[in-house]
Design goal:
Number of helices: 10
Shape: globular
CATH topology of the largest domain: Rossmann fold
Number of strands: 15
Largest sheet: 5 strands, parallel
Number of domains: 3
Mean pLDDT: 89
């Protein structure tokens, strides 16, 4: 079992932390340089967490648990218009990243009003490629209730946010509702806003933990973080991708930021233990920029094939 952590420290001697992670049999999930600062999202065996903390102390850095690391979350807003996206949705996105999540902002094409709001099949399929979706809705109870059709048919867990208190039973299709996060024309910096964001983090963590428990009953043959590492090592084109996290880990797979039509054959041939990636996963074209989506098959499906 691995523990996911976030290390924050200086650029000086940072290679020593990378070497330690490799020596412990761990993985670097994401590496961000912010001027002279470094933020590493990493996964190491649980029994070696203390060694990472000791090294971080030696390098004058800090380590904290990142319970959302290795997950990809969709932050969905009814429209791309400024009265929906800029404040609460963006602050929700930024706050979840502090806990290790890789999130994507998605603005629906026709959601500018409770009477005409819609979601297309392509938008649903894109959202379903994630581990979880957070719908950032508005400040009026009836408006939120009238928009349940946006998320009630999705396959992934859904967390809805809004300003008023609403019973979850009034939002069919939602797994949780977090109040206090309505549509406001300012940053979420006040005490009540921060408390609401913390509640959102707790809710998302609990849902992801439940998904991990369900997956543990019939897990993939290999963890997604190992698949990420092997793709980075065996597909040279990944080194030429300049987007953040060119191979993004998910609970049950990875998103590879390479064009499916050009590279899916190379990705399919990646060797992991005694199997190719094509043998232990489904490899499809993503709705996001025609990237390549790899979803790992559970062990039971592999036994059935044999």
């Amino acid at each position: 079992m691995y523990e996911t952590l976030t290390y924050t420290g200086g650029v000086h001697r940072h290679e020593e932390m990378n070497e330690l992670i490799e020596d412990l049999g761990g993985f670097v999930l994401q590496e961000n340089f912010l001027q002279m600062d470094l933020v590493l999202t990493l996964a190491v065996p649980i029994e070696d967490v203390d060694k990472v903390k000791e090294k971080a102390k030696e390098l004058l850095g800090k380590v904290k648990v990142a319970p959302m690391a290795g997950t990809e979350i969709a932050i969905v807003s009814p429209t791309l218009a400024r009265h929906h996206l800029p404040h609460s949705a963006c602050d929700i996105s930024e706050y979840l990243r502090r806990f290790g999540a890789k999130d994507n902002m998605i603005g629906l094409a026709r959601g500018a009003g409770k009477g005409i709001s819609q979601i297309s099949e392509d938008e649903k399929n894109l959202i379903n490629e994630h581990d979880l979706a957070v719908f950032a809705l508005g400040s009026f109870e009836q408006c939120i209730k009238d928009k349940v059709h946006l998320f009630q048919d999705l396959d992934v867990p859904v967390v809805v946010t809004g300003a008023p208190e609403i019973d979850l039973e009034d939002l069919p299709g939602a797994d949780a509702y977090v109040s206090g996060l309505g549509r406001i024309p300012r940053r979420l910096k006040r005490g009540g806003d921060i408390r609401a964001l913390r509640r959102l983090v707790d809710v998302v963590e609990n849902i992801l933990d439940e998904r991990r428990k369900d997956m543990s009953m019939d897990p993939p043959m290999v963890p997604s973080i190992l698949v990420k590492t092997e793709i980075e090592n065996q597909v040279p084109a990944i080194q030429e991708v300049y987007s953040p996290t060119p191979v993004t880990s998910q609970l049950d797979g990875v998103r590879v930021k390479l064009n499916y039509d050009q590279y899916h054959d190379q990705i399919s041939e990646v060797k992991i233990y005694n199997h190719t990636l094509a043998e232990i996963s489904e490899i499809t074209k993503s709705r996001m920029y025609d990237y390549t989506l790899v979803k790992l098959l559970p062990e039971s499906s592999l036994i059935d094939q044999q």
